[in-house]
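Duplicate of #3305? Posting structure anyway:
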């Protein structure tokens, strides 16, 4: 039996009843429904009791201002890190509202013209442009930090003979990871299931990967949309990666490629996506290949199209190596805007000889307020 985050059977990142898949995973329990019914009855009873009593106007009093010292005001104010703004402050008798700009976090891989990974570069080797304007970096480092990894495995019928080797390769990636990593597993076909939420327990991940019910069609975009939302809402780790393994085109999603890209590029810290796709390029799969490349390249990842199943293990090891040598670049946009405005990003790098290097990172993001949770 599949169990979700709060104990309901059949944990599922599922479509809403309106027919449009929810961009946010829904985890519903029978106990929650009961609690809501009881709460509604309590409120209705309280309302009925209060409406039967005579109404009495409360005495009117003039509120007196409470003196607040600067130190106590600072202690009670909500941190700009969590709200995106500071409290109004007086300047010359007026009120000024200052908006705190959220830092955009980029995770970048740098390679030379021969595709060799380049490490050890300093801050001066990089330039960051947003919407064509040079940005001032606020942070820079190269680190092997823990990550939140989502593994999305195609569970359609054609994947059955591939699952054993795919599962072994994924587990090798997990075992080679940072001890602080947290991983979740989504198996998807026509529907998509969260078969294991964030954990570092290899035994639990193995059990989730072995939930093979290969049949039906492929709702790839739906699974990506739901998984990206799950990472954004529930991952405690800021370094975020999705690994997607499939062998066919999307033929069952209610979400589109554009919906998937919008979800992946939502906010200033979206996940990097790596794709492994067993697709025969000679069988009219050009559009599918192009779509998977769009998803991976625009998030700073890469797409692999192995011709032989035995290549999968080497690919996952290469991905593990990539994500361990990322540069982390932070900046605060010089052109902050409201929600859902798309900003392009271009990161350039050069070596000590001023030779241009290739940088793989996200190509843009949709801005949103810091307190946005949907």
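Output from current build:
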């Amino acid at each position: 039996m599949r169990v979700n985050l709060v104990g309901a059977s059949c944990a599922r990142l599922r479509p809403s009843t309106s027919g449009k898949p929810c961009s946010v995973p829904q985890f519903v329990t029978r106990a929650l429904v009961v609690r809501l019914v009881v709460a509604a009855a309590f409120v209705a009873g309280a309302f009925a009791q209060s409406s039967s009593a005579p109404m009495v106007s409360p005495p009117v009093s003039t509120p007196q201002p409470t003196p607040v010292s600067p130190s106590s005001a600072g202690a009670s104010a909500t941190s700009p890190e969590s709200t995106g703004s500071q409290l109004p402050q007086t300047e010359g008798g007026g009120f000024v509202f200052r908006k705190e700009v959220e830092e955009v976090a980029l995770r970048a891989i740098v390679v030379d013209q021969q595709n060799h990974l380049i490490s050890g570069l300093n801050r001066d080797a990089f330039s960051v442009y947003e919407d064509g304007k040079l940005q001032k970096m606020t942070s820079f480092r190269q680190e092997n930090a823990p990550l939140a990894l989502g593994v999305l495995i195609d569970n359609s019928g054609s994947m059955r003979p591939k699952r054993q080797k795919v599962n072994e390769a994924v587990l090798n990636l997990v075992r080679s990871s940072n001890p602080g990593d947290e991983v979740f597993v989504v198996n998807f076909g026509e529907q998509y299931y969260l078969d294991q939420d964030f954990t570092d327990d290899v035994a639990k991940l193995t059990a989730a990967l072995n939930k093979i019910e290969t049949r039906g069609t492929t709702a790839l975009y739906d699974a990506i949309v739901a998984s990206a939302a799950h990472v954004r809402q529930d991952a405690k780790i800021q370094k975020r990666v999705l690994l997607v393994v499939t062998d066919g085109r999307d033929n069952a999603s209610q979400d589109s490629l554009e919906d998937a890209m919008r979800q992946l590029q939502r906010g200033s810290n979206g996940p990097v996506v790596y794709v492994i796709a067993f697709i025969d390029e000679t069988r009219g799969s050009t559009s599918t290949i192009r779509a998977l490349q769009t998803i991976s390249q625009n998030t700073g990842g890469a797409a692999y199209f192995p011709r032989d199943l035995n290549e999968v293990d080497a690919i996952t090891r290469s991905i593990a190596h990539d994500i361990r040598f990322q540069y982390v670049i932070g900046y605060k946009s010089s052109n902050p805007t409201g929600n859902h405005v798309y900003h392009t990003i271009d990161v350039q790098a050069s070596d000590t000889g001023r030779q241009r290097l290739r940088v793989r990172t996200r190509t843009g993001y949709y801005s949103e307020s810091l307190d946005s949770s949907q």
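Confirmed duplicate; merging threads. The two ends are 29 Å apart (CA to CA). The chain has a mean pLDDT of 78.
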